[in-house]
Amino acid sequence: MLKRLKPGRKETIELNIKGLGVPILMRRSPRARRFSLQVSEAKRGAVLTVPAYSSFADADEFLSRHLDWLKERLAGLSEPVPFTDGAVVPLRGYAHQIRFAGPVRRRGVAWIDAEDSIDLPAWPEAAAQSAENLPKLCVSGEPEHAPRRLLDWLKRQAQHDLKDEVGYQAERMGLEPKRIFVRDQTTRWGSCSTSGALSFSWRLILAPGFVLEYLVVHEVAHLAHMNHGPRFWKLVEKTMPDYERAQKWLREHGASLHRYGADDMIAGGAGQSPKGSIE
Question: Which ranges carry the YgjP-like metallopeptidase domain (predicted)?
């Protein structure tokens, strides 16, 4: 039998059931009464939650019974889009084509070159169009370092936009957050701690501005109401009457944002936008 793990403790196991070489995050939970299997778009893999005293044999048998379901869901995941030269990525809700510019002085880490673009095409509709007419997201430096430089630049852009939006919305609502963090979150787009600290995913810089605005309004509202009760939603609606538009966008496109700059391996817990689940 597997040894009992402390609450919250996780372990990752590599499973090769009938040739399926997919990394599975296996999480023991003292609260779980049955096995559950979830395919996460955010983590591009599967998460298996098992009861505290279950065995590897039990887990193997459960996965074997649901192998066809697992293969089908994994095959349905969108292909990852690494930060490579020529790749098309969203930025503030608009499609851009990445261009590695090489060592360039006096241009900074990254910049937008839209001189040859016809217009500023909205993402994801523009993702299927030719990249030739898209604005270029240029990245300086040696090609081998460009992906990391672009990632760092995007995080700084997210920090800037989120800080400004939090300041604006907090003033409107008469509230004051203690601190603001921008992280590579996969379980939530944003969160508010009981101490008044707000955390957001840097990937919100990829989404349209009204989506980032909604997430900020949502988390700032939690400074007044640490729940999702009627008073909380009344404050959200008063501050942003069309907030449901952003919710709809997140339901339809939010999980796709995790494709960008990501690899195929599981690195953490279950994503906030599971592709499917089974018990």
Answer: 34-253
